[in-house]
Every structure is written in structure tokens, then in C-alpha cells.
């Protein structure tokens, strides 16, 4: 579990470390397992990063500070820790677009 220095986020990574990165983010109340079929399909072409947000899934549950802004800061710190130069980010709202 990477520790970006904020909260510990349970994170699954698939694909080659040098491939372009794709960050898949679940919706409120879910966890990264929602992305399993997509992550596996994308792993042949991308480095797929699938975290559980703070307070979700297997990630740490802080006593306070579970705002969307803090979750976004967690994701930025996670990407800094894992080292991709840039990432395409998708959230579950994108997967539900008409």
C-alpha cells in the first residue's frame, strides 16, 4: 500500500511501469474493485492505477478530513509517489455518461 505521506491508500497497479498512466477513481461509497474489468482490459496498453479513496475500501479512515478537495490532494500525492510523468484520470461518473 503506497504511503503518499497523507493517508495510506490501498492501491492496485497493473501494466508496465513505463507505459502511459491511467488513474481510475471510484465513486462515493464504492471502492477500486468497481474498475476491475476495465483495469484488466486497459493493462495491456497502460499502467493502470486504481486506488481506494480515503475512508473507502481498504484505505485508511481518517478521524476528520474526508472532503473531495482532500481526496484530490491524496490522489495527486499518490501519483507523485508512484512516479508517472502524467496520467489520464477517469472517475465513475465518466463511466456512467449517456
UniProtKB/TrEMBL annotation:
It comes from Streptomyces coeruleorubidus. Keywords: Hydrolase. Pfam families: Abhydrolase_1. The keyword Hydrolase applies. PANTHER family: AB HYDROLASE SUPERFAMILY PROTEIN YCLE (PTHR43798:SF31), MONOACYLGLYCEROL LIPASE (PTHR43798). Residues 20-85 form the AB hydrolase-1 domain. This is Alpha/beta fold hydrolase. GO terms for molecular function: hydrolase activity. It comes from the Bacteria. SUPFAM superfamilies: alpha/beta-Hydrolases (SSF53474). Gene3D superfamilies: alpha/beta hydrolase.
Amino acid at each position: 500500500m503506497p504511503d503518499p505521506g497523507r493517508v495510506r491508500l490501498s492501491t492496485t497497479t497493473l501494466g508496465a511501469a513505463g507505459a502511459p498512466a491511467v488513474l481510475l477513481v471510484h465513486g462515493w461509497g464504492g471502492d477500486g474493485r468497481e474498475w476491475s474489468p476495465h483495469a484488466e482490459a486497459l493493462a495491456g496498453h497502460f499502467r493502470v492505477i486504481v486506488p481506494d479513496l480515503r475512508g473507502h475500501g481498504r484505505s485508511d479512515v481518517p478521524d476528520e478530513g474526508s472532503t473531495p478537495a482532500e481526496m484530490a490532494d491524496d490522489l495527486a500525492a499518490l501519483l507523485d509517489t508512484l512516479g508517472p510523468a502524467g496520467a489520464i484520470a477517469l472517475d465513475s461518473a465518466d463511466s456512467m455518461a449517456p
